[in-house]
Protein 1
Amino acid sequence: MYLKVSYEIRDKYLRKDMLPTIFCPGCGIGSVLQYTLRAIDELGWSKEEVVWVSGIGCSSRVPGYVDFDGLHTTHGRALAFATGIKMANPNLKVIAFMGDGDTAAIGGNHFIHAIRRNLDITVILINNFTYGMTGGQVAPTTLKGLRGTTAPYGSFENPFDIAELAVAAGANYVARWTVFNYIQGINSIKKALQKRGFSLVEFLSPCPISFGRRNRMKTAPELIRWYNKITVPISKAKNMSPEELKDKIVIGEFVDRDRPSLDEEYEEYKKRAKEMMGWEE
Amino acid sequence: MKYPFPVGKSDFIQGDEAIARAAILAGCSFYAGYPITPASEIFEAMALYMPLVDGVSIQMEDELASIAAIIGASWAGAKAMTATSGPGFSLMMENLGYAIMTETPIVVVDVQRSGPSTGQPTLAAQGDVMQAIWGTHGDHSLIVLTPATVQEAFDMTIRAFNLAEKYRTPVILLTDAEVGHMRERVNIPNPEDIELVYRKLPANEEEAKYPFGDIHGDLIPPMPIFGKGYRTYVTGLTHDERGRPRTVDAEIHRKLVERIVNKIERNKEDIIDFEIFELDDADVAIVSYGIVARSAIRAVKMLRNEGVKAGLLKLNVVWPFDFEMIEKVAERVHAIYVPEMNLGQLYHLVKEGANGKARVELIPKIGGEVHTPQEIVKAVKRCEKCI
Ligand SMILES: Cc1ncc(C[n+]2csc(CCOP(=O)(O)OP(=O)(O)O)c2C)c(N)n1
Ligand code: SF4
Ligand SMILES: [Mg+2]
């Protein structure tokens, strides 16, 4: 919507027989999908080397629309499935498309452990602050006071900052943008895709239907204005006090490092095992 | 290939160890698990062997993740296994259904311990039989094997992989703490002498377009595994032959689920396996499976010594279930006894199979100990007297 729809990208990568998508008007998921496809295209990756995985939710429907191998799994568990895919065939490049509830609630444990292991995967996270698919219940990302159908008077719980969580758990690359930072977004996805080990690119993404409507922001433009109000670039945030940062969401690149990935570690482990056992093939 | 344990000879090993070795000989190259008594020894053996044979053995964060990982590995082309016991098996139910719906070959070992809940962690039971068959939600079918000896644990592990690959389905190896922990002599064949089955792959691009279609008329679609350029989309939602979600069309749902059920049901003859002892002239039959069948064989001999013409039907596969065979047995005897280490699970299936042609009596036992032959004899004689 903020990038012109690229017919070339669409024709090259989408499964025509799966369209139209289930996404509502004004939903941000389609834009993030387009950024991801552009990044893949710019990197020149071929279709047979990439597998898309997902859990359950609006965001998780993405692998169904792209013309790649795809595993649409159970709610929250995409990264556990992905661990099997990647470790059974380390030549595959694995991308997970996940929702915030999927990632931080039901899949929270799989998320931190996949990061701890430094699974070589790129997670594209759609953070719409809500359970979009099931109609707007509160999520572990819902900011205090915002409404959802299961906290109709405003959430009374503390939210997770998923990007910070990923940094603390040991991810190699973490960035967060809003859907409207498309240049930075595409660049971050490209970096993330090329990164060995765990990478996460989180997008604050409008869900006008399930989230906006319940929080007096019925349309995507209203949600954009709200994002502009609550986000601060990481460069600026560095010089802000904790009080100033209260109720703000930091965007930018959080970490970029090169710890060995799980499959690399396992290769070493196999060598060690063979050495220790005096094993010759 | 070189193996990290002796092959082509016999060895004195635990049931759990036998399962691990058999898995490797069956071509398993991916194991994911979470520690739990009495299944941990399977994991520990896999952890020891897998890196040496260039396979993967990985400890996941829980059993939800363990079964998820092996499903992922299977789609990446590997033969994959996990093993657990009751509490972990309960956690696996969600993704067991996913494996059924997506027709993913995997092997899940449940070394049964006494439940419910944490129960008696070190003691054996047969309390998970119905869960193994019906534990995951929705209409479905799968295959459940029940070894009674360490040798059978070995042989049936290989068979579990073969059936999983042949029918593109999860297979449960349902054993228990007794078989898992006991040590017995096991004959480990030469790898060349083991017959292995591999999943059918698409013969060409055209076949690969129908990962869930009955394109060969045998109800089992070829499996377009990942990374080969097939661009397969796999979903647990109701899907059409091409794998596209179609969630409100009753006909598509019926077709898919009926095919998944029928590919097992219509191949019952190939899948079902049983053994018969002294059943030909029997007046009473014992129907048994797993560890209890060993006591039942002794009980049959003892009963015959005491003048009761008893026979045994030992089931090596409890699902799919051969209701017709039970009816045939029921037509020839006046009573069927079902000793189980639970308060009555397979008993209900036997009763349904008997179809009123013979009296069916449960001999239940819980608390962690296997029925002694004497207990079975006593229970049979008590009942035989009362008529
Ligand atoms: C085990 C399980 N529990 C609950 C659900 C119902 N469910 C489907 S999607 C969803 C929430 C999705 O929210 P999120 O992950 O944020 O994705 P979004 O739809 O917002 O993109 C829930 C609770 C489910 N499918 N499976
Ligand atoms: S419910 Fe929200 S997240 Fe889901 S498609 Fe609609 S706008 Fe997008
Ligand atoms: Mg969401």
Protein 2
Amino acid sequence: MGAYFLVPVAAALEFALRGPNGTHSLAAFRDIAAQPELVPMLTVSLRIALGTLLITVALMVPTVVWVHLRLPRLRPLVEALSLLPLVVPVVVLVVGVLTAFADAPNLIKGTPAILALEYVALAMPFSYRALDAGVSAVRLPTLVEAARSLGANWPTVLLRVVVPNIRTAIVGSALLTTALVLGEFTMASLMLFDTFPTWMVRVGQQQAGVAVGLSVLVLLTSWALLLALSIAAGRPRGATSLFRRSS
Amino acid sequence: MTAVTARAVRQQQAGTPVELLGLRRRYGAVNALDGLDLTLVPGELLALLGPSGCGKTTALRILAGLEQPDAGRVLVAGQDVVGLPAHRREMGMVFQQYSLFPNMTARDNVAFGPRVRKQPASERRRRADELLELVGLGSHGDRYPHQLSGGQQQRVALARALAVSPRVLLLDEPLSALDAQVRAQLREEIRRLQRELGITTLFVTHDQEEALSLADRVGVMRAGRLEQLGPPEQVYHAPATPFVAEFVGAMNRIPGRVVGDGHVEVLGQRLEYAVDRLRSPGAPVEVLIRPEAVLPVPADAAATVVSRSFLGPVTRISVSSPQGGLVLADVSSVEAAALAPGTAVAVQLRRHPVLVRDPR
Ligand SMILES: Nc1ncnc2c1ncn2[C@@H]1O[C@H](COP(=O)(O)OP(=O)(O)OP(=O)(O)O)[C@@H](O)[C@H]1O
Ligand SMILES: [Mg+2]
């Protein structure tokens, strides 16, 4: 099983390190740092990622919580709906978003900001599942009712009881979303925007080693993030100094 | 733990009267509440008792504001609170499931209500510690829920509910997830606290022993309505209906027949019965008799002891009699020594009015 993931990564790494005449060197990684467009492109993508995950969290957390509290019987249906972006071809999503936002101000339509909106939809299968699993793991209805009977209004319930108890799931869905944005090519290129992934593909056409090296770096970074996440999540409650806030 | 602390915790609540009037609630085809009327006297502990699914939790949740009635009124201190959201009803609630906030220490859990009410940090901390002391967990304030036993968690939940000085305390089977010993102990403690604080309390349970031992009054529910409401002794000794008689305590159902002027004949003896409606002499009935009203005495008679199980101070004997079938009898364990299985006995019945019902 492990080999299935490790072999391609190792091969990519080996390719990135490969120099002329069968030698190996870190030249490709030195070239990465030398790319003038690296930082601007990465900034664009990270900003899109930030926008995407903010919208995702603001939209999905109340939705998932609401479904769990008020429409528990509709959970399978909502889950199926959340999977739609996986089966709808990207082109259709693009056209859909373009149509929906045809009258939107240019500030949204003409900038990569619109990509964030599309990525929210694209990331939904992952973000929804991560949040759904997190909410299922705590007895949310009881906790919410306890908080309500103690005098908390809905905003307080959400901020003081719901969010702290599904923090790990929120971080998880945020990470998945970020990883998706940092690797999404089709949509960005269809929309004619320059992002980190499209730039990487362009670079790859001239300097294959640099592009592959970059993607290995991105991959390892997201793995490190996911690992950190699962370690934090695995620790018992009350022992996580990483996330705990005293009140 | 002391009365002094309790007095300090008690603020102004001199006990609030509560009235539920004609409550109705349907879930699809199920009539969870079918015109429930219930009045709680200020400061009393009323246990709502009934079989699973009879609507106890629904009634309690409507009082808490967590559920809306289809019809009916809820009066707290004379004011209609239907339409008032849960967070403004000032009721303390303890749930059957563990419901502490897992991300907070015991102290922060107890201080949650005061915190939501924007009390100063030092004051709510003092109050939380006081209440934890009151439920016997003074030294556990820094523990997280997962570091507490089930019984301790329910104590913290009780302290948390009391921290908001509720007008009414609502307990929905708070002990049912605990083992027998902890349950008995915590039961006593709830009773003591409730008395000291004088809070009107609704205690929902399907455990009749719990209801009888804890409550000032017991309300027996059946299919969304109140079947009988009264002190534990009355519900037990003078059940208003055969349903109450059979639900509260163990009950024998022995075939007999009406012999006129309010008497039945059962196991060859004449007993007075509580007349619920006119029955003609000779009509076959089932007579409801408590095991402790049955007295098997060794004799050269047709009934025999079938089995004997030791319950502590009393021993339950089951006797097979030719007219009555299998009859249960609770006798003091000392007397039971003479009643080994196989012993021939005569079954005597204590002279006490009985309930009858039509045979099935
Ligand atoms: N949210 C709901 N949706 C559908 N039906 C419900 C709901 N809540 C309760 N019911 C139904 O209403 C009836 C009364 O339920 P309720 O929970 O009040 O019973 P209960 O007396 O508390 O029982 P138990 O002792 O099992 O807790 C049951 O038949 C139950 O199935
Ligand atoms: Mg219930």
